[in-house]
Design goal:
Number of helices: 1
Shape: globular
Number of strands: 33
Helix content: under 10%
Bound molecules: beta-D-fructofuranose
Strand content: over 45%
Distance between the termini: 29 Å
Length: about 500
Amino acid sequence: MSAVEQREALHRESVSKAMEALAELRRNVDKDPHRLGFHFMAPAGWINDPNGMIHFKGEYHLFYQVHPYSADNGLKHWGHAKSKDLLHWEHLPIALAPSEPFEANGCFSGSAVEDNGKMTILYTGNVARPNKKQVQCIATSEDGITFVKYEQNPVLADFPEEGSADFRDPKVWKHDGVWYMALGSGKDGVGNALLYKSPNLLEWEYVAVMAQGELGQGIFWNCPDFFELEGKDVLLASPGVTPSQRDIRTNFCRVGKLDYASGTFYSEQDGGVDLGPDFYAPQTWLDDQGRIILIGWMDMWWNPMPTKAFGWTGAMTLPRVVKLREDGGLAFEPVPELQELREEEAAFPVTTIVPDTGNVLGDVRGDCLEFDIRIDLRRSTAASFGLKLRCSDDGLEKTVVTYDAERGQIVVDRTKSGTVDGGIHRFPVKTPPGELLRLHVFLDRSSLELYVNDGSEVASYRLYPDAGSLGTELFVEEGQAELISLHVWRVRSIWGKDAGSEA
Ligand code: FRU
């Protein structure tokens, strides 16, 4: 065997070992009542960032950071799945496993592009000890399933003066026949995205600091993403922060224009992608309909994760179509495909609700539900109104989503949401007082996603209630709320009986 063949064999062996470990871990996963019904999850193990999102030969490929040896954060591999409809996922073999010295502590995040008909992954090789060293590598696949690492990896080994040892998560795209790559890094306590260019994906030339943050906003950036949307350029990134800095924004989007000549991104609008506490490292697909579709990791590094007891942690958010709003900011709407999972509808007559109306949701019970609630704020006098979900019959457990009319905020109370006290979280909604408020809510067992006003504000949460806590309630306090419409659907599971067993 040649040296190159030996290295390839080592990679294959590393993949097989990881697959065996995953199969072993999978044995208890389905016993967990917190397993999700209609979100993407790995077969087992710990997962974090979505990676390498590419729409290839009519299928959406989703790679992701996975630790296959336990449900704890550990040695990162690239998990892999694909979907024809963004709803149902077929698990595929692990695509990348660490097998080279320069990736001894993980094959970290990155992206995928099509180059000469081949699926090509760019990822970070991570060495953590004794000194942190992060390098950029390439792997290719003929069939979109089995990946071969480039024999001359790494293709980019050293960070520029404007960066630091945190130098990772290549996002690659093509513009006017030239490949560009944004890397997450930072310098002197300020996060940044570094821009490179290449004629062939193999030789990379440093261009400039594409964008940067400010002191106190995270010391480096992770997982930059970049795409064009309706004539604008968009940059996303996730600042790296420690648990004690959790008030710092951990994801953002900038809408503006990248000046390719200087490599500078000029931002016109700066906002959040997801305002909830359980969201990180979003990435996007560009699909064949020209849509930009975003998915994020629906969890966070420092969270208590009770699902570890069953051999898994972490999931992805629902896929969200990214749209440009009239005010120049972004909106993130659940993909319309999700409507196909609606099973049973409870439609309610348009009505005025007052504190003593009783629970208009009556006997709607469940843990996989979608709510679409439209309220006319002009005719509503209520100090607050909202939804109680996952309520236990004895009233001890509940998750409460409230619109606080006075403050113009959504308040999510997870202090009684089960085994984990998620605290109280608030975020402002931009709806001018006196207009329409749309609350589009997806409850999926241990997750809750809120889409406010057609995705102008989005927030994701995890919760761990008892399996029997299934009650729902629509409530109003002090005054009345005028409903324009109220729809509730039971949502069908996307997973078959042996969800994920192919992996
Ligand atoms: C972000 C991140 C990335 C890195 C990956 C490792 O969540 O820290 O920067 O590539 O996770 O799993």
